[in-house]
Amino acid sequence: xxxxxQPNSMESNEExxxxxxxxxxxxxxxxxxxxxxxxxxxxxxxxxHGLTSNVNNRMASLAIAEDRxxxxxxxxxxxxxxxxxxxxxxxxxYQLIWGAGTKLIIKP
Amino acid sequence: xxxxxxxxxxxVIEKGQTVTLRCDPISGHDNLYWYRRVMGKxxxxxLHFVKESKQDESGMPNNRxxxxxxxxxxxxxxxxxxxxEDSGVYFCASSQDSGPYNEQFFGPGTRLTVL
Lengths: 108, 115
Known about the structure:
The complex is a heterodimer. By secondary structure, chain A is mostly beta strands. Helices cover 0% and strands 51% of the residues of chain A. Chain A is built from no helices and ten strands. In chain A, strands 1, 3, 4, 8, 9 and 10 form a six-stranded mixed beta sheet that branches. In chain A, strands 2-7-6-5 form a four-stranded antiparallel beta sheet, with no helix packed on it. In chain A, a hairpin with a 6-residue loop joins strand 3 (32-38) and strand 4 (45-50). Chain A starts with 8 loop residues before the first strand and ends with a strand. By secondary structure, chain B is an all-beta fold. Chain B is built from no helices and eleven strands. In chain B, strand 4 and strand 5 (44-50) form a beta hairpin. Chain B is globular and about 40 Å long. The chains are: A mainly beta, B mainly beta. At the A-B interface, strand 4, strand 8 and strand 9 of A face strand 4, strand 5 and strand 10 of B.
């Protein structure tokens, strides 16, 4: 199964927006794109998901390219508590197919 | 409401021994999943229960791994005999429904070290 690809790490300043990119060029038409994050010493935590349209929730926004080969997770105003590893995931049937994740570092 | 809990949080055993990991899902969640991350690799799906039935066990690495969910409540994952390459973090997750848009709730994980 083709995994998603993400940058290993990104840095951002506190209170600024963060755009986390993800490539999923071989995604099938029925696979959802999910994002989870993992804070230190915790299990993964759901952030957002989408199929074709852009999505917003209280945590973040998800922008999906028209051809669905890439997506971007947007944190509108990052805080220190958002420092975590962010995983872009292909949801195929019941399985979450994980990439390596992006470690987000927030600078005060 | 209590989240997904896992026991133990850490386990250190010697090669050839047996270890049993336990997961208690969120009450009322029929769907239970096991994942693991071995050193330096991505998190990988192991299997999926719907109530007490195994819906998908395609990710189980070999027959040294046995997962059960008697009564459709908590689940156990037994490794017998454990090998060095089984070291890693084992996560359990649960969800109310199994659709591709559903959120899975994860436990904190069990860190297994095989010496």
